[in-house]
């Protein structure tokens, strides 16, 4: 017998060469083999694997097959929601859904928690799933190539961009649930995420929900799905990248992209996906998605560039124009936040300049009060009163200047470079002081935590390279380099102490678990930066106060890790660094 035949013989059930089972057999695989997805020989009283492992072999069926009534109930639920979402047939830059009953539940009563936040646990996607042929096969891309080949002819030719005409995937409809479930998702989203990233028009969506003539489509279903995704909490034992809502959203976005769809709703939806990926530390996906959003915003023509092709056409209302403007600011902020602490930030020519208009007052936009929406330029004095989202835009602009200083400016003269860095430090510090003063007077402390966090991150990012002078010049530091190092180290100590106070205040205003749902993932980076600085001070001098500050920041990160896993990852990095330092000290 050949070696191949011998191996085949040993692989046969019960060691028979012809594959025939000997003895009684169960009619299904045992529960252990099913869970581990192993082949079961179904031998009685115990299968071969369980017998070898000396464990109990359970052939019971804990999940009875669904009945025809179950299938009919599911089919009716999916048809009901699909008729609501597909009823309008379109899905351009507008879109809403008519759902009843109108009153929204409060954030606490309507919150999705536990397994409800993630939705039912769906099996991993497989091309063999029943819906795959209708979703992926035969998808036609109707996007007109003339947009890229000859934009002048497109602009003056009156050519329209087709609306997405694909069916909403069955798993998406199942995850969204019925009308009341979608309503709860929307309510929770606007009560939490919308407070720190207000890019979706609440007024427009609310108006459309009570308007019998409403416009909807697959891109609106995608936005609802991504709203559910961003409000969901991580679960112990389940990787955030395996969240069924996340997997469904990524597949749905790819499907719409294949069809050549180009709408504002798709950009807003994928922007929420990026914040989920960033907040739950899903890399490199977060960085890639942020870049996708920049490109897609360019495609739509909402980037404020006069030469950009306006695929969406002229906005029909002030609300729609402001929504596009806010979405582009959201794209810029996302790209800045996700990559400022890595090697991956790519400088671009679309940085906002002094004449760029900030978003209008958040409350005025939410309520559609155009008369109360005063426009403010980015060059306006820092003490000019603006709302929290414009403050976040100002902080993002400051971070852009810091990144440009480190990555874009080529100033060979040390004195000139250090003078610019010092002035930039004063400018960012002024913004930090202004937000700190405002945050002490507003009734809701959490509303300004995102812009203050990004401002702290900008200060730490500016100072950190200068605190190690060998990174900027020769190994023999000049007097200017030595002076700049002292200034940078002092700056890191100052901002770290401010971040420690900021951390304690966050703990004070988030005493209830649901309070964490309103915290932006932007908060985590400065907390880690401060903790890393205190850890460095502990290693350098063994300072007891620095150790206490480090421990406090680690506790805050661990606590916030129940909402955003990037906080838990930061805490894990600090623990690993501390362990490595302890081992190194013991061996020296």
Automatic annotation (TrEMBL):
Quick one: where is this thing mainly located? nucleus
Ranges of biased composition (kind: Low complexity): 108-117
Q: Where is this region: Disordered?
A: 1-24, 86-117
Residue ranges of the Zn(2)-C6 fungal-type domain? Answer: 29-59
* UniProt-annotated location(s): Nucleus
Q: Where is the composition biased (Gly residues)?
A: 86-97
Keywords on record:
Metal-binding, Nucleus, Transcription, Transcription regulation
Instruction: Write down the SUPFAM superfamilies for this protein, in alphabetical order.
Output: Zn2/Cys6 DNA-binding domain (SSF57701)
Write down the PROSITE patterns for this protein, in alphabetical order.
Answer: ZN2_CY6_FUNGAL_1 (PS00463), ZN2_CY6_FUNGAL_2 (PS50048)
Q: List the residue ranges forming a coiled coil, or say none.
A: none
- Gene Ontology cellular component terms for the protein in this record: nucleus
What name has this protein been given in UniProt? Zn(2)-C6 fungal-type domain-containing protein
